[in-house]
């Protein structure tokens, strides 16, 4: 059951430029929908974490707090929400707004976090992490690419709290999902299987999967590509200085005392072209995913999405984040991103349930959560 409660010398194509141009054209608009209608509200939430339930709270953008018993793993939210014009400028300062973070993020949601998993290093995923990791999740180790680690260290995060998963001297990332190097990659170890990394005192483990970032509009190259191979001399402060780095997806396993997997979670922070970021066949056959945390933004910029990842991971439940307009403050009425068709994505999700062609259907459930909303998932029963 499920329940829910409330690079090079060439200048990169920027994130917001195509969105802004589209906003000026006929037919591009926000959807003024009430996404809360897509979720079901559960009354009488558990008084304490249970071995039989997994709690997943949507924070904002592609940030989630995932709790099983006393173990919490989180992914990065964004609350500062710089305005579109500042992002469009590329070299304009994007000030972090700590007061907005404090007004939206409740300490009890993430203070026990053992890990923060970073998929890529654009500002909308990383700029609030230095403050959140210091003030809200002081015990969390931050995992991500070498670029992410270097940008965060330049932003004041102690290196002792950072783990670069694709460091040259380690072999953690599973590169089997990438048959070829992603166009924007910094590090690529063809064919490497990587390995599980145990976290949270052995109560959980993570598997980083080679992935790539989707185009952001009209299938044009992704913005702010580039790598930070050393720690920058100053903190990143513009959209252009928050470099993409490598893109990773994650499997997160929460483990029983005997090492058996109690819950398996899949996380991505950008839609993926076929096979990039997918579960390698051996992992997909081993166990289906209980909850997939998929990225809605850019869903129509890659082929076979979301059907491909749904059939690959076979998640019982799906939450789709990164649908809300993150160029405006997180308050009042929630709007979708400009030119983002929530109903089209919903249609694609529903079509993925169809059994044509045979064997390509998905049998799970999905929601578009709103910031702060809590979902509670029951443990899967043996078939």
Q: How would you characterize the largest beta sheet?
A: 8 strands, mixed
Terminus-to-terminus distance:
15 Å
At the third CATH level, what is the topology name?
A: Metallo-beta-lactamase, Chain A
Average pLDDT works out at 85
Order of helices and strands: EHEEEHHHEHHEHEEEEEHEHEHEE
Count, helices? 10
Assembly type: single chain
Any chance you could write out the topology, listing elements then pairs?
Elements: E1 2-5, H1 16-24, E2 53-60, E3 63-68, E4 71-74, H2 84-89, H3 98-104, H4 107-110, E5 113-117, H5 123-126, H6 129-135, E6 141-144, H7 146-154, E7 162-164, E8 197-199, E9 204-210, E10 248-255, E11 261-267, H8 281-286, E12 291-295, H9 307-313, E13 317-321, H10 342-351, E14 365-367, E15 374-378
Parallel strand pairs: 4-5, 5-6, 6-7, 11-12, 12-13, 13-14
Antiparallel strand pairs: 1-15, 2-3, 2-15, 3-4, 8-9, 9-10, 10-11
Describe the 3D structure.
By secondary structure, the chain is of the alpha/beta class. The protein has one domain: 4-Layer Sandwich (Metallo-beta-lactamase, Chain A). Helices cover 18% and strands 20% of the residues. It is built from 10 helices and 15 strands. It has helices at 16-24, 84-89, 98-104, 107-110, 123-126, 129-135, 146-154, 281-286, 307-313, 342-351, and strands at residues 2-5, 53-60, 63-68, 71-74, 113-117, 141-144, 162-164, 197-199, 204-210, 248-255, 261-267, 291-295, 317-321, 365-367, 374-378. It starts with a strand and ends in a 5-residue tail after the last strand.
